Amino acid sequence: MALWLNRAGSHGEYEKRFLNDNRIYLTWEGLTYDLSKLDTKKDLNTLLAKVYRNSERPTIRNWIGQIWSFTHEMNKGDWIVLPSKINPKVLHYAEIIGPYVFDQNAEDPFFHYRSVRWIAKDVPRAAFDQELLRYFNLPQTICRLKGDQVESHVRAIVKSIGKYAELSDLGKVQSSDLRRGGRFDTSSAGIKNLVRFGETDKVEFKTKLPPEDIIAQTISAFANTDGGILLIGVNDDGEIVGLPQEELDLTINRMEKITVSLFPFPVEVGQTEIDGKPIVYIVIEKPSPEYLPIITARGEAYQRRSNRDIRMEYPNLRELVDLDLLAAKIQRPMIIFVAMSFKEEQEPALVDYFKAMERAVATTRLPLSIHKIDLKEGDYEISQEIMDEIDNSHIIIADFTLSPRNVYFEVGYARGKHKRVIQTARKGTELEFDVRNWRTVFYRNATELESKLLPALVNAYNDINS
């Protein structure tokens, strides 16, 4: 069984196609011929010289060996290593399960392919020693990797890491001892083992404490996917650099502050020492469905893809909100009071924004009623009536679009009464200092407000109802 290198374009432009299609492709453009009909490399040489008339003869000679390998020498059961260009720190592995196929109806350059089964995706390069890594850096697009036991070594490593599963499950692989009893092993030995495998969809390194919004982004992504661990004191190359003693308490305090702001449940923040170098870690377990999605102070939600944080498109936030689960629970009615500008003649979009709030409330299918002071009939002193409404409400939606003075007053009163406040504002709104540090849902239009407000309402209801 051979081991082959097969790249997905010089810049990784075909990588997602390879992975999604469960195929490897021969990506020479304009090569619209069934190459299985060629009997010899000489025949292939003649064809390539005809198709690529402007290419130099040494270039064509180089191509002959690569193309012939793909069409005539690869076999079922052989393994493929695909070095990632999207994330240069990882490799993907597959087993060939099908013969060479020519599809004349395919789009250029996907005429030629072999079907594969992906054995392990996102395998960290750090799992291999430098002797093996040099084989993965060969310049050819397609070539067989040969060397003293290179094939057996690579197979053994990938099997032990991946257990024939995608490395998106890396945090669950017991043979690697990355987790203990379903949780990450945060002992010195456990952290050291995590570092050895490099960054993955469940492990992130930071040399030092980054800005708070970056931390919130990563731990939100962990929570909205399958959990993960953030290690501070490890650089991107997996080198344990440690944190200065004078920064330890500050780092832990800031981490705890951020987690309290983001999560309605305790999160493990701690420290350990590896080879005399202090490391701070934060472990994020995947929350129960009723708490999802976890949204940052900027009103954004992220998910983890490979070792990157990907911002979710707002309509997709609904996929993380288990409305059926909520509807099945015994629920108590709650009142929402909306504080926003009254200047609808100046800004007609305010009507649309309130309608979006009503739609978001209706979509939750929760026993929520929404009140707004200017919709209330009767003769009353407005300031006192607003305070009475806030007193009787469970959740306050405070919209700062147009920077209305009344909303600042109402929010201050509501926080003094320890009410749950959801701050919203149209993008471009300048918030004053006394509300700037509170999480705010920013939106561009009514549709986006509705989508982003839905999970915020569900989270608020759950916090109060728990």
Architecture overview:
There is one protein chain. The chain has 466 residues and is α/β, with parallel strands linked by helices. It has three domains: 3-165, Roll (ph1033 like fold), CATH 3.10.590; 172-312, Schlafen, AAA domain (Methyltransferase, Cobalt-precorrin-4 Transmethylase, Domain 2, 2-Layer Sandwich); 319-465, Rossmann fold (3-Layer(aba) Sandwich), CATH 3.40.50. The chain has 14 helices and 20 strands. A hairpin with a 2-residue loop joins strand 12 (268-274) and strand 13. The radius of gyration is 28 Å and the shape is elongated.
Class of the largest domain, according to the CATH hierarchy?
Alpha Beta
- Helix content class: 25-40%
User: Judging from the principal axes of the Cα atoms, what is the shape?
Assistant: elongated
**How would a textbook summarize the main sheet?**
7 strands, mixed
Number of helices: 14
Mean pLDDT: 83
Please indicate the count of domains: 3
Kindly summarize this structure in a few lines.
This protein has helices spanning 15-21, 41-51, 57-73, 130-136, 150-162, 188-196, 212-224, 245-262, 323-328, 349-364, 382-392, 405-416, 433-436, 446-465, and strands at residues 3-6, 23-26, 79-83, 90-96, 101-102, 112-124, 142-144, 179-180, 183-184, 203-206, 228-232, 268-274, 277-284, 302-305, 308-311, 334-339, 368-372, 395-399, 420-426, 440-443. With 466 residues, the protein is of the alpha/beta class.
